[in-house]
């Protein structure tokens, strides 16, 4: 990401307490600790002070098969946005939809209320994320198909970091397709066999325009998670 002028949350890989404390001093509290090569995030955690930091670090180093952890800057409370991008082999790129998470960073996007298109971005901010998303696809090497790029924005100073990139059709792609009427999976399949966006018809306009036209919607679509409490007899839904 640094090669294309974009930031990720600051982080450093360490193998000892001394190196971890030095890394933590650079990123501050709260601090995210991620053990290397463990499943489901086991051994990781968020430390709000030195005592918690050393406790989680010790556990993480023990659980990591290579005795290594990532000490990472926390982006808890930041605003979270997603961009659904489609690219073809001729380097035509379009943004199908922008998605905004109502819940801040720290709440999984699958558990968060989301709105499409994004509502609190200025045009300048939107264009910045648009350009960054396309740059990420090119750098990662997604030559054809759909991808999802996620950003965190610090509400205090506007700092933007790339937090995740899925080089495939994802859960968010289904929401973007539903919100705009643009069939991402169908288009991605056709791009994979050699078509370009300008050769494909745009289903939104009944085929009057090519798929290389970015969808523009004058309404808002909201996704609200449904928690299946009936599957967990001991859970309290209140």
Automatic annotation (TrEMBL):
Residues 1-193 form the ATP-grasp domain. PROSITE patterns: ATP_GRASP, CPSASE_2. InterPro entries: ATP-grasp, CPAse_ATP-bd, CPSase_dom. Transmembrane segments: none annotated. One of its GO terms (molecular function) is metal ion binding. Its EC number is 6.3.4.16. One of its GO terms (cellular component) is cytoplasm. It catalyses: hydrogencarbonate + NH4(+) + 2 ATP = carbamoyl phosphate + 2 ADP + phosphate + 2 H(+). Pfam families: CPSase_L_D2. Keywords: Amino-acid biosynthesis, Arginine biosynthesis, ATP-binding, Ligase, Nucleotide-binding, Pyrimidine biosynthesis. GO terms for biological process: glutamine metabolic process; L-arginine biosynthetic process; pyrimidine nucleotide biosynthetic process. It is an enzyme of class 6 (ligase). This is carbamoyl-phosphate synthase (ammonia). It comes from Lasius niger (Black garden ant).
